[in-house]
Amino acid sequence: MEFYRSHVLVCGGSPCVAAGCRAVRDEIERSVREQGLDREVRIIETGCLGPCDTGPIVVVYPEGTVYSHVTTGAAREIVSEHLVKGRPVKRLQYAGELPAVSTADEKRTDYFQIQKRIVLDNVGIIDPESIEEYIARDGYLAAGTALTGLRPEDVIDTIKRSGLRGRGGAAFPTGVKLSYTARAEADQKYIICNADEGEPGTFKDRLILEGDPHKVIEGMVIMGYAVGATRGYIYIRGEYYVSIDRIERAINQARWLGLLGTNLFGSGFDFDIEVKKGAGAYVCGEETALIESMEGKRGEPRQKPPYPGTSGLWGKPTVVNNVETIANIPPIILHGADWYRSFGTSTSPGTKVFTLTGNVNNKGLIEVPMGITLREVIYGVGGGIPGGRSFKLAQTGGTAGGCVAEAHLDIPMDYENMQSAGSALGSGALLIIDDSHCIVDVACSLLHFFEHESCGQCTPCREGTARLVQIFGKLREFRASQAELDLAMELARVMQGSSLCALGQSVIVPLGTIMEHFQGEIQAHLHGCCSAGKCPPSGAASASAS
Amino acid sequence: MTVVPDAACHCDDSFLSQVESVASTYRGKPEDLVLALHDVQALRNYLPREALRVVARVLDIPESRVYGVATFYSMFSTTPRGRHIIRICESAPCHVMGASEVIDSLLDQLGVEMGGTTADGRFTVEATSCLGVCGVAPALMIDDEVYGNLVPGDLLEILKRYK
């Protein structure tokens, strides 16, 4: 299989042809050949990409950089600046957003061949603002099948048998969760889609919502039918302006076609969805904090039990699921549990959407079968580490996930194996860090995040995160002692046992794995040595920063 | 509770009646307090105490709770801010891609500390956790616009676009 580090898509729709895209394509091909990049860069002419009035349009993958009004001169510049030097030519960039650009059709490019797309099968292919295009790709067929042909318990049974587990990080079996709420007696039940994506390094939910919003709506309808809930909410980050706009548009389209509202598919089942906007709080990704926020309060986690499944929003039985989990449901209903189980591993069936970031050549959104190794992702899909550096560590699952070293690159990425490596799949964030970085500096950055985002409700987390920042800050300045480091680890363990929610409980995960895998480097800092040369001695910090 | 008068807020009657009319959309829906605060904040880019009091009255919620919510979420501010809000990410994915240099350069060019507002009232710089565009780290957001793949040299040109 051939690998190209970059793909250049040139829009070949009629308006672009009229605007001169053929000359642009020829110019790009010529320049790429002249620069000797023809084995690294592949040039493809595509169908219409959308905003024809700004053509000719050129898209460069994997960055997904969109260039508009491209002239032949601009084409040469794109090749010499972007493709040769890796510097996107900002001046030529398209100012708006182009949904088709977040990903590409797997059949079209080699970059996507490792991937198996279940959740993302429409993203980058259909116009997310067109319900017709979604329907044309079997959209709402699963909801129709479920509501008119399956009993609610059959739907839950299929989801249970599929082995789908929560994709937000906790990996709880989705079918089991649905069955709790289905069994609960109540005059009103709710479905909540958790789109409060705040885990650093994670942006999959955003791109799912922006690229295929109807799949999320359809998944919620099916879940509502399964548990007997008639109201759904999508709680979405306040900063995700495009996602909010797109999902609201999609909801209106679905209402217009009678796919949301009353008597869906003539089945007598009613279901409607409302969008709730967050206002910037990482902790609201925790389901009970999210519910508090939806009730118009400070987003502080609740004591559990009771769990939302039996007592959630307004004390009513509530299913809270992550965007990606919900997007898996229509395909499972449509193709069956056995089909779904044919992907991934026996205990972690299906695929996982990962976001690949940091020191890796191809950053972005990927969907791969569970059980793929980190090495395959980094060196296959990711195209390796740039700048001739070597791999140092990967943090998997976001800031609350563990750090794995070189020795763990060949562990299959599924729930069980990642856990036994001391890490977690978590939200699907894969942050790759090369050997130019100092582990203490990385730890300081992670701890700073926890301190910033601790909601302040419970003492272990509020005080613990602050003390950890202090101790590692000292370590960074070569002023910490072994006793203080021991204290830090003890503190993290106490936080694990006594914090109210996962935020404080999980600080031990990155910290513990860092201490385990990078013991030598940590010890060196006790003796005034930073091999990466990142940590300045005390007093020099401010001088070097200015 | 003693209320410290907000000197910076020229909270005259016309502003407060504007607040009242915006908040009235959510009358009878105290659960929509967060949405109401988003809308009220859009008027002046921050939430003056007097405005919070109006929101509390219209939504029939204790003022203490409104204040509690307004100070909990990072998108809300109870102190005056500049015309444009720069949110710059300092989480790990941006950090390893060189966010520190960009942050230092940004604060240096604007002559402010993190959290500060420029003397001309043009910008307020706020540190934020992840913006969800980590594929183009390091990133920042000005109002509702996101900029990625930043190097310190990009800043001047970006800042020039905002008056």
Helical run tally of chain A: 22
Distance between the termini of chain B: 39 Å
* DSSP E strands of chain A, number: 14
- Count of beta strands of chain B: 4
Low-confidence stretches of chain A: 102-112, 538-546
Helix content of chain B: 25-40%
Overall pLDDT confidence of chain A = 88
- Helix/strand-derived category of chain A reads alpha/beta
Net shape of chain A: globular
End-to-end distance of chain A: 48 Å
Strand content of chain B: 5-15%
Q: Based on the structure, what is the oligomeric state of the protein chains? A: heterodimer
Order of strands, widest sheet of chain A: 7-8-6-5-9
* Overall shape of chain B: elongated
In short:
Chain A is an alpha/beta fold and 546 residues long. Chain A contains 22 helices and 14 strands. Chain B has helices at 13-24, 33-44, 49-59, 63-70, 92-95, 99-110, 155-160, and strands at residues 84-89, 123-128, 140-142, 145-147.
Plain-language structure description:
The complex is a heterodimer of chains A (546) and B (163). With 546 residues, chain A is of the alpha/beta class. Chain A is 42% helix and 14% strand. Chain A has a five-stranded mixed beta sheet with strand order 7-8-6-5-9. In chain A, strands 11-10-14-12-13 form a five-stranded mixed beta sheet. The longest helix of chain A is centred in the last third of the chain and has 18 residues. Chain B is α+β, with helices and mostly antiparallel strands and 163 residues long. Helix content of chain B is 40%, strand content 11%. Chain B has seven helices and four strands; from the N terminus they run H-H-H-H-E-H-H-E-E-E-H. Chain B has a four-stranded mixed beta sheet with strand order 2-1-3-4, with helices on one face. Chain B starts with 12 loop residues before the first helix and ends with a helix. The interface between A and B is large, with 56 and 45 residues.
